[in-house]
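User: Predict structure, ligand calcium ion.
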Amino acid sequence: MIKFNRILSIPEAIDADWDRRISEEEMLQAVRYWINDQEVPDTGGQTINDLILHQLAEFWVIGQPYVLTPYGARDRAIDFLLGQNPDSGLPREAIWDPQRVTPEELVGYETIRYTQGSWQIEVGYPVVPFPDYDVTVTNSQTGFTWSGKVTATGIIS
Ligand SMILES: [Ca+2]
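Assistant: Predicted complex:
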């Protein structure tokens, strides 16, 4: 397995097999860290509090791949839309050009715009742990537009 030389978020560190899902075994390990109030390895000394344990349990119960990054939210939205409409022409394996488009005066909320040809995907999120993402997908040529929310647990709503 590839190990990245950076500080991991707790879900990333708990997800020992890197499949972006929390298995029963991984959940049990998280509970052990929580009971012992023990630092989770590779997280820069973070420990699991009640809120994080609850969040991990949600990842575990739902079983969907969790979303931690804006590009993860973008890809979940693409998968969802392709599932609904396989002929939409949305590129799944594309290189997207990211651009931070957060207005200067806005504090506590970030927006990133990804562009690929005539497709634009904007992902906005509050700057909090495990944010839900507001995603808007548009195509300037076809007029296609979709807005939805991708939760931290990967659910589209
Ligand atoms: Ca896993």
